[in-house]
Design brief:
The protein is an alpha/beta fold. It folds into three domains: 251 residues, 2-enoyl-CoA Hydratase, Chain A, domain 1; 180 residues, 3-Layer(aba) Sandwich (Rossmann fold); 88 residues, Orthogonal Bundle (N-(1-d-carboxylethyl)-l-norvaline Dehydrogenase, domain 2), CATH 1.10.1040.50. It is built from 29 helices and 17 strands. An eight-stranded mixed sheet has the order 12-11-10-13-14-15-16-17, sandwiched between helices. Strands 1-2-3-4-6-9 form a six-stranded mixed sheet, sandwiched between helices. Strand 10, helix 13 and strand 11 form a beta-alpha-beta unit. Helix 4 packs across helix 10, helix 14 runs antiparallel to helix 15 and helix 28 crosses helix 29. The longest helix has 21 residues. Bound molecules: 3-hydroxybutanoyl-coenzyme A (3HC) and 1,4-dihydronicotinamide adenine dinucleotide. The site of 1,4-dihydronicotinamide adenine dinucleotide has 23 residues, from helix 13, strand 11 and helix 16. The site of 1,4-dihydronicotinamide adenine dinucleotide (NAI) has 23 residues, from helix 13, strand 11 and helix 16.
Length: 698
C-alpha cells in the first residue's frame, strides 16, 4: 500500500485500486504499489479473489513515458506481472477509460478481464516508436489470435469493449468497473473457475503454427504504409515469436526488441512528438484555468472544399453544425460531397453502415448568413480575398449571438484586419484547418492582437474535442506552416533553373520521409492558380509559365510537372517536361548543371528552418515544438524525425547556419543568410530545444 495504490477488503474479495492522476501511468510508485498490494492480498487467507481497478478517468494508460531513457527503478514491470500471473488466487482486471500499452499488459497478466462498454483497449507502443515490452506481444496473440493481435500491435489502434468481448480479450461487459469486477470475482469463486493463464494457452495459435502464411500475409498488408519506420516491423517480428517459440523465449525476443527500440533515434523523436503535441495545447500568456466558452452548435460558412471538411469533422464528433452557403445550388453540391465521402468511408468499413445518415442528420444546410444566430462558434471558409472576408465578418457582427467565437479559416490573410470589421475583436481569431479538413489533424489557431484568452481556450478545447491537434500561432502572412513552406517552394523552383528535374527534387523529399515532393504537390493543387496570380501581379516564372502555356495545369489536365496516365493520380516523369525545361533554360541563356541530392535536401530543408527561427524570433510561435507539431500534423513531416526544429537540432545548428551562408553566396540570394537567432544559437553551439522548457521526453 502506498500513496497511489491501495488494498481494500470487501468480504473475501481484495480490491486493489490504482489512483495516480492523470492517467494512472505505471510509474515506479504505481508498480511498487501494485506489487505490494498483490503480495499482501495473496498472503491474506481471508481473501479468495482479487480485483485490480483504477480511480479517476481511466484504467492504467501505459508505462510512464517520462521514465524511458532514465535509469530503471525497481520493481520492473515484468517482475510485477510474473507475481500476478503466478498468484494462486484469481485476479480480475476491471477496466474503464483506456487500458493502453503497459496498462493492457497488466490486464493480460491477470487471469480474467472485464470492462465497461465505453472502455478502449490497445497496445499503442508503436506510435512511440516502441513495441509492447511487458509481454503484450506474447499474451495478446494467445488471447485474441495472432492475426488480430498483430493488427492491434502494428497499427497501435485500440479496440472497443464490444470487439474485445467478441475476440475473447475480455470476459464480460460490466456496468461499473469496480462493482462489475467485484461481482465477476464472486462468480468466479462460486463457480470454482480455474485460473486462466494466457501464457499456458496456445489454442488460438494453432492455425498460424500450422500455416505461418496466415500471419505473414496479414503483416505484409499492415506494414505496407510503414515506410521508414522501424517499430512496426520489429513489433511484427516479436508477435511472430509468439507463434514460433515457447512463451519464455518469445518474451526474451520481445525484450530484446524493446530495449533496442527504446534507445533508437526514431523512438526518441516519437516520444518527443507525443509531449510536443500535448504542450501545444498550453497557450503561452493565457492565465491558468481560463475556462473555454460553451460550444453546443457550430456554424460553418461556405460548403466548398474546406467548409465541407470542417463541417464533417464536427459531425464526426457528434456536434451539430449549421452549414451556410449563398445559394441552394452551392449548398446541395457541398452536402452531396459530404454524403459521398462518408458513404465511401462506410463502404470501406471505416465507419458503421448507419453512420453516414446519422452524421448527415447533424448538418443543417441553410442559405443566408443570418442563420449563424444560434451558433456558439462560427467558422468562415469562404473565398480567400480580403474584401469578401471583411464583408462576411461585418455581417457576422450583425447576426452572431453575443459571446460567439468568430473564426476565419483563411490561409494567409491578416486576422487583425478582419477583426476590425466587427465591434467584438476580442471574439475573433483564426482556425486554420488543412486540406482535406476531415482527415488532416492540424488546426493552427491564430491569435490576433485583441483575441480574448477565453476565445483562444475555446478554439483549443473544441479542436481537441474534434480530434484535431491545435497549435497557437500569431498573425503573419501564411502563419507558421505555409510561411515556412513558401521558402521550400522558392528553392524548389530555383533548383529547376539550375539543372535539377522535378522528379529528382521530389524523390529527395519523399526519401526523407515526406508524403509528397513539392512538384507532385503543385500538380495536385493545380498550376493554373499560381499562373493567373503571377499574371495579375506581372511576375514571371518561366518554367511554370511555359507548362501552363502548354495547357499543363497539373493532375486535373493529366499533365503538369509530371504526366498522369488513364486518370491515375500517380505522377510519371515526362520527357516532354525535361525538353521544355531545357528549351526554357536555353532561351534564358542558362546552362544545366548536375545538382546533387545532398544539395537538394539542404536547400529544401534549411531555408525552412531559417524561417522557423525567424518565426520564433518574432514570437509568431511560442515554442520550437509548436512548429514541429504544425509540420507533423499539417504537412506529413515523418514522425520519426520529430519535426523540422527537432531535426535541425540533430543535424547541428552550426552546420545549418554555415550551409545557409554558403548557399546565400553561391546562389546570390541574401535572404538565405541565417537569421539573428539561428546565428546566435549556432555560435553558442546551442539548440532550438534550449529555448523551451525542458521536454518531458528523455
Ligand atoms: N506516461 C506519462 N505521461 C502520460 C502518459 C504516459 N503513458 N499518458 C498521458 N500522459 C500525460 C500527458 O502528457 C498529459 O500530461 P499534461 O497534462 O502534463 O500535458 C496528461 O497525461 C493527460 O494526457 P492527455 O492530454 O493525452 O489526455 P487525454 O485524456 O486526451 O488522453 C490518453 C489520455 C488516451 C491515455 C493519452 O494520454 C495517451 O494516449 N497516452 C499514451 C498511451 C500510451 O502510449 N501508452 C503506452 C506507453 S508505452 C508502454 O506502455 C510500454 C510498455 O509496453 C512497457
Ligand atoms: P472553395 O472555393 O472550395 O469554397 C468556398 C465556398 O464558399 C464556395 O462554395 C462559395 O459558394 C462559398 N461562399 C462564398 N461566399 C460566401 C458567403 N458570403 N457565405 C457563405 N458561403 C460563401 O474554397 P476553399 O478551398 O474551401 O477555401 C475556403 C477558405 O479556406 C479560403 O479562405 C482558403 O484560403 C482556406 N483554405 C483553403 C485550403 C485548401 O487547400 N483549399 C487549405 C486551408 C485553408
Amino acid at each position: 500500500m502506498n500513496a497511489v495504490v491501495k488494498l481494500e477488503r470487501h468480504g473475501d474479495i481484495g480490491i486493489v485500486t490504482v489512483d495516480s492522476p492523470p492517467v494512472n501511468a505505471l510509474s515506479a510508485a504505481v508498480r511498487g504499489g501494485i506489487f505490494d498490494c498483490m503480495k499482501e492480498a495473496i498472503a491474506d487467507s481471508s481473501i479468495k479473489a482479487i480485483v485490480l481497478t483504477c480511480g479517476g478517468r481511466t484504467f492504467i494508460a501505459g508505462a510512464d513515458i517520462t521514465e524511458f531513457g532514465k535509469p530503471p527503478k525497481p520493481p520492473g514491470l515484468q517482475e510485477v506481472l510474473v507475481a500476478m500471473e503466478n498468484s494462486p488466487k484469481p485476479i480480475v482486471a476491471a477496466i474503464h477509460g483506456t487500458a493502453l500499452g503497459g496498462g493492457l499488459e497488466v490486464a493480460l497478466a491477470c487471469h480474467y478481464r472485464v470492462a465497461v462498454k465505453e472502455a478502449k483497449l490497445g497496445l499503442p507502443e508503436v506510435k512511440l516508436g516502441l513495441l509492447p515490452g511487458a509481454g503484450g506481444t506474447q499474451r495478446l496473440p494467445r488471447a485474441v489470435g495472432p492475426e488480430m493481435a498483430v493488427k492491434m500491435i502494428v497499427t497501435g489502434d485500440p479496440i472497443g469493449a464490444a470487439e474485445a468481448l467478441k475476440s475473447g480479450l475480455i470476459e464480460e461487459i460490466v456496468e461499473g468497473p469496480a462493482s462489475g469486477g467485484e461481482a465477476f470475482a464472486r462468480k468466479l469463486i462460486a463457480e470454482k473457475r480455474p485460473l486462466r493463464k494466457l501464457r499456458d494457452d496456445d489454442s488460438k495459435l494453432a492455425a498460424a503454427k500450422a500455416d505461418i502464411s496466415i500471419f505473414t500475409n496479414a503483416v505484409a498488408a499492415l506494414t505496407k504504409k510503414a515506410r521508414g519506420l522501424e517499430a512496426p516491423f520489429a513489433a511484427a517480428d516479436a508477435v511472430r515469436a509468439a507463434i514460433e517459440l515457447p512463451f519464455d523465449e518469445g518474451l526474451k525476443k520481445e525484450r530484446e526488441g524493446f530495449l533496442k527500440l527504446v534507445t533508437s533515434d526514431q523512438s526518441k523523436a516519437q516520444r518527443y512528438a507525443f509531449f510536443a503535441e500535448r504542450e501545444a495545447s498550453k497557450i503561452a500568456g493565457v492565465p491558468d484555468g481560463t475556462k473555454p466558452r460553451k460550444v453546443e452548435r457550430v456554424a460553418v460558412l461556405g460548403a466548398g472544399t474546406m467548409g465541407g471538411g470542417i463541417a464533417m469533422s464536427f459531425a464526426n464528433a457528434g456536434i451539430p453544425v449549421t452549414l451556410i452557403e449563398t445559394s441552394d445550388e452551392a449548398l446541395k453540391r457541398g452536402m452531396g460531397v459530404m454524403q459521398k465521402n462518408w458513404e465511401a468511408t462506410a463502404a470501406r468499413g471505416g465507419i458503421p453502415a448507419d453512420a453516414p445518415a446519422k452524421r448527415m442528420a447533424l448538418i443543417d444546410g441553410k442559405v443566408g448568413i443570418e442563420n449563424v444566430k444560434d451558433a456558439d462558434l462560427i467558422i468562415e471558409a469562404v473565398f480567400e480575398t480580403m474584401a469578401v472576408k471583411k464583408e462576411v465578418f461585418g455581417k457576422l457582427d450583425q447576426f452572431a449571438k453575443p459571446g460567439a467565437v468568430l473564426a476565419s479559416n483563411t490561409s494567409y490573410l491578416n486576422i487583425d484586419e478582419i477583426a476590425k470589421e466587427t465591434k467584438r475583436p476580442q471574439d475573433v481569431l483564426g482556425m486554420h484547418f488543412f486540406s482535406p479538413a476531415n482527415v488532416m489533424k492540424l488546426c493552427e489557431i491564430v491569435r490576433a492582437a485583441k483575441t480574448a484568452p477565453d476565445a483562444l481556450t475555446t478554439a483549443v478545447a473544441i479542436s481537441r474535442k474534434i480530434a484535431k491537434v491545435p497549435a497557437v500561432v500569431g498573425v503573419c502572412d501564411g502563419f507558421v506552416g505555409n510561411r515556412m513552406l513558401a521558402q521550400r517552394g522558392k528553392q524548389s523552383e530555383k533548383l529547376l533553373f539550375e539543372g535539377a528535374l522535378p522528379q529528382q527534387v521530389d524523390a529527395v523529399v519523399t526519401k526523407f520521409g515526406m508524403p509528397m515532393g513539392p512538384f507532385a504537390m503543385s500538380d495536385l493543387a493545380g498550376l493554373d492558380i499560381g499562373w493567373r496570380s503571377r499574371k495579375d501581379r506581372g511576375i514571371k516564372s518561366e518554367i511554370a509559365d511555359a507548362l501552363c502555356e502548354a495547357g499543363r495545369f497539373g493532375q486535373k489536365t493529366g499533365k503538369g510537372y509530371y504526366k498522369y496516365e488513364g486518370g491515375s493520380r500517380s505522377p510519371l516523369p515526362d520527357p516532354d517536361v525535361e525538353k521544355l525545361i531545357d528549351e526554357t533554360l536555353q532561351e534564358l541563356g542558362k546552362k544545366r548543371r548536375n545538382v546533387s541530392d545532398d544539395e537538394i535536401l539542404e536547400r529544401m530543408m534549411y531555408p525552412m528552418i531559417n524561417e522557423g527561427a525567424r518565426i520564433l524570433e518574432e514570437g509568431i510561435a511560442a515554442r520550437p515544438s509548436d512548429i514541429d507539431v504544425i509540420w507533423l500534423y499539417g504537412y506529413g513531416w515523418p514522425i520519426y524525425r520529430g519535426g523540422p526544429m527537432y531535426w535541425a537540432d540533430s543535424v547541428g545548428l552550426k552546420h545549418i547556419a554555415d550551409r545557409l551562408s554558403y548557399y546565400a553566396k553561391e546562389t546570390n540570394d541574401p535572404s538565405l543568410e541565417p537569421c539573428a537567432l539561428l546565428k546566435k544559437l549556432a555560435a553558442a553551439g546551442s539548440t532550438f530545444a534550449s529555448l523551451a522548457a525542458p521536454s518531458k521526453a528523455a
